[in-house]
Amino acid sequence: MLDSDKKVTSCLCGSVKITAAEINPKFTLCHCDTCRAWGGGPLFAVQCGTDVKFEGADSIKEYQSSPWATRGFCHNCGTHLFYRLNKTGSYNMPVGLFPDLPDLAMTMQYFSDQRPDYYCFSNQTQEMTKAEIEAYFASIT
Question: Which domains does the chain have, with CATH numbers?
Answer without folding.
Answer: 7-140 (2.170.150.70)
